[in-house]
Design a protein that fits this description.
The chain has about 220 residues and is an all-alpha fold. The protein has one domain. About 80% of the residues lie in helices and about 0% in strands. Helix 2 runs antiparallel to helix 8. It is elongated.
Length: about 220
């Protein structure tokens, strides 16, 4: 029961859990034309639609976030909202260009996060190397104490934990990027070449990592 409450107890956690269920069902449905496959595909699509509608309420907090920290990772939300309104004929315009713009913005934001994470990994590795050098220097000068050694070990442990978190972030964003490019119009890299089962698998991996990282952050805070 406690686990279930943790998964659906907050909007952020619930969104990530719904996303995970959405992609698991997409993977299970695959390209099946059987009744079971069709039903799983319908449920997966409805879960995706549910997340889209809930994201309509994210504009105000995301706008505040953008003012504080820049454009952020979800600049595609307004584009998605316009595409959603056009699909439902609330706005009298073609939803295609807006949906494409949303995908492109998502792909660009994912690439930005990947490069940012790789840069942070490099900086963390340099910091670890510097700490190890300091430890060796202290040992050579015969000034190392048990307290200092423990302190350095603790710092290195924290850096290694941050490095593992960043590697997970890279995998998460890469799997999402695979899907984002696959859903672009045919002719760009691997767009349109992967099956529904493959995109379901990629989405499942990224969603599981998102959920794991979110709860790890909340547990440590």
């Amino acid at each position: 029961m406690d686990t279930a409450v943790r998964l659906v107890g907050s909007y952020t956690s619930r969104d990530k859990f719904i996303r995970l269920c959405q992609y698991i069902l997409k993977f299970l449905a695959g390209q099946q034309k059987t009744n079971a496959g069709i039903r799983l595909g319908v449920i997966s699509s409805e879960l995706g639609a549910c997340r889209t509608v809930l994201r309509l309420f994210d504009d105000v907090p995301m706008f505040a976030y953008s003012l504080s920290y820049g454009l952020g990772r979800k600049v595609y939300y307004p584009l998605e909202h316009i595409a959603w309104l056009a699909d439902r004929k609330i706005l009298e315009r073609n939803s295609g260009p807006w949906g494409l713009a949303c995908l492109v913005a998502w792909a660009v934001s994912l690439l930005t996060e990947i490069f940012k994470s790789i840069l942070q990994i490099r900086l963390i590795r340099r910091a670890q190397i510097q700490l190890l050098k300091e430890r060796e220097l202290e040992a050579q000068e015969e000034r190392e104490t048990a307290e200092m050694s423990t302190s350095l070990k603790g710092q290195i442990k924290v850096l290694k934990s941050q490095e593992r978190e960043l590697y997970l972030a890279v995998i998460e964003h890469l799997t999402d990027l695979v899907n984002a490019i696959n859903w672009l119009p045919p002719g760009f890299l691997w767009s349109g070449k992967f099956s529904a089962r493959f995109t379901g698998a990629m989405g499942t991996i990224s969603s599981a990592i998102k959920l794991y990282r979110f709860h790890k952050r909340t547990d440590s805070s």
